[in-house]
Design a protein that fits this description.
2% strand; Methane Monooxygenase Hydroxylase, Chain G, domain 1; two-stranded antiparallel sheet; mainly alpha
């Protein structure tokens, strides 16, 4: 193996480690949200610094690689894609932390109200269980985790045949996001005391929708690296169109 190839493998491994960390953050964000686990949410918030550190190191290492080896063709596409993927992963990490902060804020609010706060206390004391089901929030989390996991497999295997499947899942997220506005509006009209919590909930759902967009951006970068094709702005209504 050439020295430059070894350096590329190191860069890919760094991104893989960051990816696994961000995926773990998202999975824990789901668990803490659904269970109201404030301690887990605090763990997510504290680990965000590790995500940031990964992004800074990968960006620096990729810049150094370009400066030292002047890569071309597929090697250059890989390095450029890894830079963009690491930036996107960092943003997903930010949204996972935002979800954790939502859980923490709700936990602190319950304690301020004189209620006991622990891991078994459901967050649904502020979010009605039926409302959570109507919003299909667990489905949103599961779909996003699936998108991020499948994208990781696509990069590791350099297989872009599942790109269309992953990108189509973003349409599901977008639909759930659009539906959530009407669901929350109707609920807040019937329960005026919930308006503040309802607005915070909508902002949380917006974070989930943005994670879906970022997962799609990652897939686009993988296709750019592997197939030298551009998907950006060409995925409409479930139709996958590419251009060289």
């Amino acid at each position: 193996m050439k020295h430059t190839e070894k350096e590329l493998q190191v860069l890919k491994e760094e991104v893989s480690q960051m990816w696994k960390l961000v995926l773990s953050q998202l999975e824990k964000a789901k668990q803490s949200f659904l269970s109201g686990d404030v301690e887990m949410a605090r763990e997510i918030a504290s680990r965000e610094k590790r995500v940031d550190a990964f992004e800074l190191k990968i960006d620096s290492d990729c810049e150094n690689y370009i400066a030292l080896y002047s890569p071309v063709a597929v090697d250059l596409r890989l390095v450029l894609s890894l830079i963009k993927i690491s930036i996107t992963l960092e943003r997903i990490g930010d949204f996972a932390e935002g979800i954790a902060r939502y859980v923490i804020d709700n936990g602190e609010l319950r304690m301020d109200n004189g209620e006991v706060s622990n891991n078994s206390l459901s967050q649904f004391s502020t979010l009605n269980a039926q409302l959570v089901e109507d919003l299909q929030l667990e489905r949103m989390f599961d779909t996003l985790i699936g998108m991020l996991s499948d994208s990781f497999v696509a990069l590791e295997s350099e297989n872009t045949r599942i790109s269309g499947k992953i990108l189509s899942k973003d349409d599901e997220i977008d639909e759930l996001y659009r539906n959530s506005l009407d669901i929350l509006t109707n609920y807040m009209q019937q329960n005026p005391a919930f308006i503040r919590s309802g607005l915070k909930t909508f902002l949380l759902i917006r974070k989930l929708e943005r994670i879906g967009d970022h997962c799609s951006n990652i897939v686009e970068e993988i296709v750019f690296y592997v197939d030298a094709k551009v998907l950006k702005h060409h995925f409409k209504s479930g139709e996958l169109r590419v251009e060289s």
